Amino acid sequence: MELDAERVNVTLSGGSAGSHALGRVPSLAACRTDAWYYDAPTAPTRILACPETCETCESGGYADVKILLGCQTQVILL
Fold it and tell me: SS3 string of 5-70?
């Protein structure tokens, strides 16, 4: 089975704020809080958290990052 890059979602859980979904942005340059992006949009090999999201994880004590496959990706529109 081949991965459909448009059907990937990322969720944080286990922190003081509970569980919440992150949205995908097109690139590092478009990053913001609660977002992630692919290393290469046309042929992704890695999911990367935006720097602001990493800060939230560290300060909020999040313990789990879940990658969910199969549902349409939640995209943050610019």
Answer: CCCEEEEEEEECCEEEEEEECCCHHHCCCCEEEECCCCCCCCEEECHHHHHHHHHHCCCEEEEEEC
Instruction: For residues 76 and 17, give the distance between their C-alpha atoms in angstroms, rounded to a whole number.
Output: 20
The residues pairing with 64 across neighbouring beta strands, listed in sequence order, are: 13
Instruction: Tell if the pTM clears 0.90, that is, is over it.
Output: no
- Which one, of 31, 9, 22, 19, lies nearest residue 63 by Cα? 19
**For residue 47, what pLDDT band results from cuts at 50, 70 and 90?**
very high
Q: How far apart are CA 49 and CA 16, in angstroms?
A: 19
The pLDDT assigned to 17 comes to 63
